[in-house]
Design a protein that fits this description.
The chain is 24% helix and 31% strand. By secondary structure, it is of the alpha+beta class. Strands 1, 4, 5, 6, 13, 14, 15, 16, 23 and 24 form a 10-stranded mixed sheet that branches. Strands 9, 10, 11, 17, 18, 19, 20, 21 and 22 form a 9-stranded mixed sheet that branches. Strands 7-12-8 form a 3-stranded antiparallel sheet, covered by helices on one side. The longest helix has 18 residues.
């Protein structure tokens, strides 16, 4: 059955039904329900509604269950829940699994955060703000989430990664160094590169711990008064004119507005986006270096290397003290988020083993472990943030196209701007859902 956690407890709740665990720091309003038994989840602050039909008939006579619902409590959603609760809004979050799960797009032990943005220089002000918000979340929860390592963007001088990064740093006056091949080999001998390879080195970059970050934001939100329903799947989000109705298998919830941050499930809940968002299966693989110290966070910056125009490999240092993480950016296969092959196959590993063995000095090409994650790609690979098409009461934040996690706290705050005041002072025209047609 569902458990309401007293405010004074800081504990781990385990369900014997499906053996999941969620760490809670100070969570007065957390409701945990086993996924297998979601029909028993209850919101103690509202009267249960037995059927969707009766909810519609009686809805107008019931008070709202919350000012704002957040559907999907991953990177973006946990941040929105936290930022909304800090503003004094009555927040209600829904997560079909549990915060910090490994079935969507906010896991993998480590994620890159970088300031010099080759994709588009308009991201730079947002990621700069995100750094401050990550530090704020660390202070609020006592959890270490961000380790600064610097970053290397490698490739030929005219490659998109290098040229785009240089355009970004010059536009915003970012601290950086341009390393020619000789300097790159001297400063960072871990990288084996052909003649003609250059790198942009920036210091304002590092590694985030995604699972811990999501759990920390969810805990900070509940500590600030938000309610969180975990282990319950939302079936639909609909505008009923005077409110938004969030429907689960068990009951309907009436809220003033909603933020949908469902990651790879976004198209299911906002059908107008289903035709333009493509879910992509991705694989991350960890490899053991012979000299772990050479690949530590203090000596091995996060990197993205443009091997060819259509083949980018990225990597992160040995945050666990044993292994480096590598992945190919894109090149994955289309996927159904509810029916993903989560087995790491030999074909998934092969290009990364080849890279580890040939491009990184002393890294053993045999994989230590691997994990599957999901990208949700927009056609232009820019985010999708704004009012859902044709529905001003529902704000969407997603379509992060494999480069969104670092922005979670600032995009969560922007989502709260949009549902509470109708606009934001941040420049987000690049992400307008209307551009997708």
């Amino acid at each position: 059955m569902a458990l309401a956690v007293p405010a004074r407890w800081g504990l781990v709740i385990r369900s014997g039904v499906d053996r999941f665990a969620i760490a809670v720091r100070s969570a007065p309003n957390l409701i945990v329900a086993p996924r297998d038994n979601a029909r028993f989840a209850r919101d103690p602050g509202a009267t249960a509604t037995p059927t969707h039909a009766s909810a519609r008939n009686q809805g107008r006579s019931r008070p709202l269950d919350a000012d704002v619902a957040v559907v999907g409590v991953g990177g973006f959603g946990s941040a929105a829940l936290w930022r909304g609760a800090l503003r004094g809004l009555r927040m209600l979050g829904f997560e079909q699994h549990e915060p910090g799960h490994a079935l969507g797009s906010s896991h993998g032990e480590s994620r890159v955060i970088r300031t010099a943005y080759f994709e588009d220089e308009r991201y730079v002000p947002l990621v700069r703000e995100a750094f401050g918000l990550w530090r704020e979340l660390e202070a609020a929860t006592g959890t270490r989430l961000l380790t600064m390592t610097g970053a290397l963007m490698l490739g030929p001088p005219d490659s998109g990664v290098v040229a785009g990064t240089l355009a970004s740093v010059r536009r915003h006056g970012l601290d950086h160094e341009l390393l020619d091949t000789a300097a790159l080999r001297t400063r960072f001998p871990q990288h084996r590169v052909p003649d003609g390879t250059v790198a942009v080195h920036e210091r304002a970059a590092g590694v985030l711990r995604p699972e811990d970050a999501v759990r920390a934001a969810a805990a900070a939100a509940t500590a600030s008064g938000a309610r969180l329903v975990s282990g319950v799947r939302v079936e639909r989000v609909s505008d009923e004119g005077d409110c938004v109705v969030v429907s689960t298998a068990e009951r309907d919830y009436r809220v003033g507005r909603a933020v949908v941050t469902a990651g790879p499930w976004l198209g299911r809940l906002v059908p107008s986006l289903a035709r333009v968002l493509q879910v992509e299966r991705q694989v991350q693989v960890w490899f053991a270096p012979g000299d772990v110290a050479a690949y530590s966070a203090g000596r091995f910056p996060v990197f993205i290397r443009e091997v060819t125009a259509s083949h980018h490999v990225y990597g992160l240092p040995a945050m666990d003290g044993r292994t480096v993480k590598l992945a190919v950016h894109h090149e994955g296969e289309p996927a159904d988020p509810d029916d993903v092959d989560r087995t790491v196959r030999p074909a998934d590993v092969a290009p990364l083993s080849a890279y580890a063995g040939s491009a990184l000095a002393g890294v053993h090409p045999e994989p230590v472990r691997g994990a599957v994650c999901l990208y949700t790609n927009s056609p232009d690979e820019h985010f999708v943030v704004g009012s859902a098409p044709g529905n001003e009461r529902v704000v969407v934040a997603g379509g992060c196209s494999g480069h969104g996690f670092k922005f979670s706290p600032v995009l969560g705050d922007i989502a709260i701007d949009l549902v509470s005041g109708g606009g934001t002072s941040r420049a987000i025209g690049l992400f307008d859902p209307a551009r997708l047609g």
